[in-house]
Automatic annotation (TrEMBL), chain A:
It comes from Tetradesmus obliquus. The keyword Nucleus applies. This is RNA-binding protein 8A. SUPFAM superfamilies: RNA-binding domain, RBD. It is found in: Cytoplasm; Nucleus. It holds the Pfam family RRM_1. Residues 1-10, 37-54 have a biased composition (Basic and acidic residues). Coiled coil: none annotated. The keyword rRNA-binding does not apply. Residues 70-148 form the RRM domain.
Automatic annotation (TrEMBL), chain B:
This is Uncharacterized protein. It comes from Tetradesmus obliquus. Belongs to the mago nashi family. It holds the Pfam family Mago_nashi. It is found in: Nucleus. The lineage of its organism: Eukaryota, Viridiplantae, Chlorophyta, core chlorophytes, Chlorophyceae. GO terms for biological process: RNA splicing.
Length: 159, 149
């Protein structure tokens, strides 16, 4: 890849080990199966040896930094919340770089979650402390980190 | 918890003038999110990204799927994948496992005229909500704007 190694946002590339698609590994012993997709042959472009770019190697715990800052995940938002309502609440804890507030494609109302980005980890941490469990438009909202330093071993505990 | 084995994969693609063009993303039980987007148009190269999302992100994803009630549907009467393209949605959750496929759906009119408009409508809107969810995550984390398909 041509972007390998240049700039501060240097991305780490990992060579994936020979890996079966999860479909064939996770499925064993699973409950009811339904759908035509199970009868399809696997596509040739399976994940096999695919190389995926990641910002940092997996491992460790706690939040993971995104390319330009720290991203929070907000849940419990009122269906009529506006971007300004959300941005305003989070502005008390720092300069909000980005707000992603998605709508339900069928109803046009807020889906209930949002992504909020701060430049620094400190601001993001303060926002979690200050806003998790608080009320916005009469509904209790919860704030979490969106990205974590995951491990590839089994499901993680907690949030 | 029984649902610790949550898994989701969505694929949409077709083979045409520019080869095999597709978008695929998946969420694995441990929170690993993988994203692939391949368009050969103007010699674009394939984009492959991965990141780990928190349990809260997975929980919200599960909520969206549960609210849609897609697990109750069946793809028996949906249009088959064809030359226009193929969509595939695989979800494993709460002891159930679905892997539905159908063609690319151009509009809600096509949904209404199908043999299973109610079920296909659920699929149609859920897929849009899922893409929206993933595009926001990818774009917030990597600062790239995924190609809308």
């Amino acid at each position: 890849m041509s972007d390998h190694g240049d700039g501060p946002e240097h991305m780490e590339e990992e060579q994936e080990p020979q890996q079966q698609r999860i479909r064939s590994t996770v499925v064993a012993g699973a409950g009811k199966k339904k759908g035509r997709g199970f009868h399809e042959p696997e596509r040739e472009e399976g994940d096999g040896n695919a190389r995926y770019e990641a910002l940092e190697p997996a491992g460790g715990s706690g939040p993971a930094k995104s390319v330009e800052g720290w991203v929070l995940f907000v849940t419990g938002l009122h269906e009529e919340a506006q971007e300004e309502d959300v941005a305003e609440a989070f502005a008390d804890y720092g300069d909000v770089k980005n707000v992603y507030l998605n709508l339900d494609r069928q109803t046009g109302y807020v889906k209930g979650y949002a992504l909020i980005e701060y430049a620094t980890e400190k601001e993001a941490r303060e926002a979690i402390k200050g806003l998790d469990g608080s009320e916005l438009l009469g509904q209790t909202i919860h704030i979490y980190w969106a990205f974590v330093r995951g491990t590839s071993k089994g499901p993680r505990r907690g949030r | 918890m029984a649902d610790s084995q949550f898994y989701l994969r969505y694929y949409v693609g077709h083979t045409g003038k520019y080869g095999h063009e597709f978008l695929e993303f998946e969420f694995r039980p441990d929170g690993e999110m993988r994203y692939r987007n391949n368009s050969n148009y103007k010699n674009d190269t394939e984009i492959r990204k991965k990141a780990y999302v928190s349990q809260a992100v997975l929980d919200e994803l599960k909520r969206i799927i549960e609210d849609a009630e897609i697990m109750k549907e069946d793809d028996n009467n949906w249009p088959m994948p064809d030359r226009v393209g193929k969509q595939e949605l695989e979800i494993k959750m709460n002891g159930e496992h679905i892997c539905f496929n159908t063609t690319k759906l151009g509009s809600v009119l096509q949904v209404q005229q199908s043999k299973d408009p109610d079920g296909l409508r659920i699929f149609y809107y859920l897929v849009q909500d899922l893409k929206c969810f993933v595009f926001s995550l990818i774009s917030a984390h990597f600062k790239i704007q995924p190609i809308q398909k």
